[in-house]
Write a structure and sequence with these properties.
The protein is of the alpha+beta class. The chain has four helices and two strands; from the N terminus they run H-H-E-H-E-H.
């Protein structure tokens, strides 16, 4: 997730994600970073900003109805362009962190 909140489709995505709204994201980021808000663009905080080449294979699970879906897809594409082996699974009719919320749902099991 790109913590600078430059994703243009947050409002559209929020309409289908009942867990996270664009209005909650700044507070969540501030809470996550605590007093280190200046690090918002640091690659260890916002992996999208970092160099991905040489990373081990990745498995990314996302929901097609989550507010972060577009950033997740862009991150997966960046990893793939950096020759990182990646498997991206987007769960149908699923929201943010659906494998944790609904672990028994067949769509969460990959």
């Amino acid at each position: 997730f790109d913590l600078d909140l430059k994703e243009k489709n947050l409002e559209k995505s929020w309409r289908v994600d009942p867990l996270i709204s664009p209005h909650h994201l700044p507070l969540a980021i501030k809470t996550y970073l605590s007093k280190r808000i200046a690090l918002v663009a640091h690659p260890l905080v916002s992996p999208f900003k970092g160099e991905l080449k040489g990373l081990p294979p990745m498995f990314i699970h996302a929901g097609n109805q989550e507010i972060l879906k577009n950033d997740i897809i862009k991150f997966a594409q960046k990893a793939q362009q950096s020759q990182v082996k990646i498997e991206l699974v987007i769960g149908n009719e699923m929201v943010h962190v659906h494998p944790i919320l609904f672990p028994k749902d067949v769509r969460s099991q990959k």
